[in-house]
Amino acid sequence: MGKEYKTITDIAGPLVFLEKTEPVAYGELVTITLPDGTVRRGQVLDTSKDFVVVQVFEGTRGLDKSCSVRFTGDVVKLNCSKDMLGRILSGSGEPIDGGPKIVPEERREIVGAAINPYARQYPREFIQTGISAIDGMNTLVRGQKLPIFSGSGLPHNDIALQIARQAKVRGTEEEFAIVFAAMGITYEEAHQFMKEFERTGALERAVVFLNLASDPAIERLITPRMALTAAEFLAYEYDYHILVILTDMTNYCEALREISAAREEVPGRRGYPGYMYTDLATIYERAGRIRGRKGTITQMPILTMPGDDITHPIPDLTGYITEGQIVLSRELHAKGIYPPIDVLPSLSRLMKEGIGKGMTREDHKEWNDQMYAAYAEGVDLRGLVAIVGEEALSERDRRYLKFADEFERRFVNQGKYEDRDIEYTLDLGWELLAILPEEELTKIRREYIEKYHPKYRKKKAEGEAS
Amino acid sequence: MEVKTAGSVGEIYRISGPLVVAEGLKAKMYDVCKVGEEGLMGEVVGIRGDKILIQVYEDTSGVRPGEKVINTGMPLSVELGPGMLGTIYDGVQRPLPALKEVSGDFIGRGIEAPGLDRKKKWHFKPTVKKGDKVKGGDIIGVVKETELISEHRILVPPNISGTITEIYEGDFTVEDTVAVLDNGTELKLYHKWPVRIPRPYVEKLPPEIPLITGQRILDTFFPVAKGGTAAIPGPFGSGKTVTQHQLAKWADAQIIVYIGCGERGNEMTEVLEEFPELKDPRTGRPLMERTVLIANTSNMPVAAREASVYTGITIAEYFRDMGYDVAIQADSTSRWAEAMREISGRLEEMPGEEGYPAYLASRLAEFYERAGRVKTLSGHIGSVTVVGAVSPPGGDFSEPVTQNTLRIVKVFWALDAKLAARRHFPAINWLQSYSLYVETLRPWFEKNVAPDWGELRNWAMEVLQEEANLQEIVQLVGSDALPDAQRILLEVARMIREIYLIQYAYDPVDTYCPLEKQYDMLKGIKMINDWMYKALEMGKPVEEIIGVKGKEKFARAKFEENYKPVLEEALEEIRKNLLGE
After folding, report:
1. Residue A439 to residue B62, Cβ atoms within 8 A
2. Which of A221, B90, B120, B186 pairs with A105 at a CA distance of 20 to 30 A?
3. pTM of the model
4. Mean per-residue pLDDT for B456-467?
5. List of residues 6+ apart from A121 with CB closer than 8 A
């Protein structure tokens, strides 16, 4: 153990400045003991021969110059063990479920090293979430990082829970677990998550990290890294397939901005630090598959777009790093559609390799193109209807309008506990495509139309019956 | 007098993320230093009094003040010689497979790995003989590097000249001496070159040959010249990376340097898995044999990201100096600019617009200026074409990186989120994009493809332009209210958009469209256009003209390898349906 110092010179926001220390390592873990004996933890942000800057995870409330500071000579680590499964931990990795301490099999640095791109394996395995708007239109694959872009008041938590409940890779019985990290969410939301986890028995195969809105903001900076360290441990040591749910990344970014402001750094856009892209990347890029290893890490970060603005730095930088995004729409929500997923701005970059013959179904790719084009056209036409009225439209246009409406009401809309398999989703899509004149289905090859279009299926069924 | 900085040892004074401040060190700007006990690689970026500011290419966690810093006295350099093709490097030319061997699946720190394999032997065939006078940049022999690049030309380093006193044929490693000059200089298969200094050439030549990409919207409407510069700005999800990958796959350059600068790890993996499988359409060899990959993904150290674009362009210039046409894809230059911003912030420099350093514009200009078609020192003609992706925050093209890039580049491929949302790919907006090479390249196309190439292109652009004007009216009154001739125009424009401009990157045939096919398709649309107007004159109802049968077949031709019969059959059907026998 290192020496104790009582040389604090300044305290500013979450930062503590010290002088006259021994050489302190960059990133070193620090413990600060208050006069009443409570201990806070922190990390070295800047170190030199003359001064040291420490960011205090649990906040600086109650600190004064008389506090004693000890440098541990170690960086921040998480106690990792298979026994983490089924446990609820604080945002900095301490058990808060009243259970025993976690006996570490290994203590891992929470700042994970970057995966060598040469060691990665391209994600290709289809994860069925049971949600049509995701499985059919923006398919998730194992090892992908696919965020949900939401807004305040939208049911992103319900969707996350539904995915956590229903997600599976078909035809495999492999070990599957969830790592759930909450950053700055309210007690009520946390309670909803916990209740649901317990009710469905999902908690047994989950590790939960909770940093509530009332917990120190700075702790949020380490919570996702703790969670990902746990995920990596379970995935790469115990071959688990891990789904990591991080909510709400917006709170994480706010904490990042707070630190940056306290350090008086030159701000980038809207006061967020210029390195926020890099910082977020060190979280999101920890998703993936590695050649020769069984376990995988799939990430589903959730963020609320301030003012529903997708160009705000938080969703914007996230979108540049993640492999697509699922965007929720307030308009659909207002129409009573659940999940209110707006498929047009949504995207899954990795779906092309995860769908098709042998993975979902042979017609999926072309079906997807056609569904997208048809819905986009229908939505465009709504704008026209608002001006000229529906009577002025041609028959073809009216059918597109109908398609768009049915798409939202029947295809996107589904129950919170409704688990649709991919065949159901695709067939439902075909039923909607049958609304359109057949010659409009230019994106799908003839062969598939004759095989899957309800008209031909019906004929075939009749033929077989007679 | 020059101060010797090599071997100078100092001490760390301060560490702040990727920035380390040393004292007691003798250093020049851009000297490479080994920092701390682990020997992390860094580069001098500032000198303030007796303090030396170093940007470190690796994570600095655990490094303490007081640890030593050793100056190598050398600027950041790359090793140029056989063995680069087919390899994937990090931002400072360390081969990623070598890093994997040392530190496993995750990238460790302080690992030294030379850019070129020291053990592999290459067969060297001299092309000069004893007594020949050689100067910098001259070719002294060749090495067969891959089947695709059977002539890796070994160059005299640019700053060396003399008379050959000895030269050998045989199998050599890159470090063996293959020739000796009269002044005692030993020439090897490789030499080093500092990445921040452009390699010399005799003169720049005008760009008059197009870089054929096999992408219809690029080749026909917004072509880039060999040795030219292009930018692809677009919001996320609009297809920057797919477009860059398409260029890396199909562009008719002999060498491709692909720089993944601060982007996704899986994207590099995709290239790594896909390129060895893909065949070059001209030679049938795996594309990987002509490709050098540089991967500095977003979670790898930020300072190395700053270096990666220089590493890439220096490798490109080296192949150019052999007389090859090289194309660079830099994805994304915005990440490079952000890396500059981050380092600049740590240096506490006065920020310019949006926190970017004031020298952003000049750095971008310097980089793109290294593109060009040149006469090399050895008298060959080679070129470096630079295509930079730009990732503007929020898709807003008015931000500093996009604006400063557009001031330099000659081709602008504007990606459009709206087109992407309706799955119109490549989502390049035909009204916003431009190419300043259209007129300079027109003679080439008219000579090598068809005499009416330019005319046809301009006709199609006019139709699209006119469509945009009409769309405003259609939005108000619906298309049925338009005069017949304009309704035909809308239909022709729709055909140009949906048949010609939409190109499927993942379709095995449509992914690459040869120039002749491009011409035939567009010419076909023009013919249909003429017949439609003629049919209108003959009194055919406009609904029948617009809905003429045979268009679906015409549209399918792009998915056919042997497209001509399909195209002709479809055209014949359409002609009959419109004009009768």
Report:
1. no
2. A221
3. 0.91
4. 96
5. A143, A288, A289, A290, A291, B269
